[in-house]
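Pipeline run #58 for the internal structure catalog. This entry was flagged by the ingest filter as a single-chain record with no existing model, so it goes straight to prediction. Upstream metadata was stripped on purpose; only the residue string is passed forward. Reviewer on rotation: M.T. Logging verbosity set to normal.
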Amino acid sequence: MELTSAEAVQQAAVEGLPLVQSASASGYKYVTQEGSRFVVNRHGGKGTYLGSFATAEEAALVFARHIGAHAAHAAQEAVVRTLRPKEEMTAAEAVAAATTEGLPLLRRTANASGYSCVVAFGTRFKAIFGDHSLGVFATAEQAALVYARHIGKEAAEAAVKAEADAAAAKAAREAAKEEAKEHAMIVRAAKVLVAKPEPERKRKRQEHQFEADP
């Protein structure tokens, strides 16, 4: 039975195996996409064929099992060292640098990292542009800064505006739904009141009149 991405990641954790990541389009070492499937070869395209899978994560799990825990951990550490930037920044330093350069950091609450085009990479964060990795960083803020630098100030500002416009449109739709819901409740209440028998309505009027008299 094939595994979903989440199941493969969970199984790797159970077995104590890291999924060896890379800057490739699949995101994993020696894993390539062929159509809707993911193929893993021991040493790339001409290496030992290990199978075809529904998800990149399951292919990466099979590769990690094939080389063993010790080799998989060593390979993952080598990937992180290769992608590690020369200058690491704290979150505050990255935000300050973005402010100095006039670059907006593209926030996206739907992403676990909190930023657009920034994904978790073990305990670090990877900035991505399409299928390409822009590097792996200690903080999500530095990854977001590198992404903003890559696309440029104009594109970054346009992306922020588009995100804000989308959020405003969503808020307007939600407000309209709530307004329509309240209106429907008022209409239903009015229909119930009109449908009450005449003696009941008369009694209600008399009660209101009695309450209003001094």
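catalog note: The chain has seven helices and six strands.
catalog note: Residues 91-151 form one domain.
status: ready for reviewer M.T.
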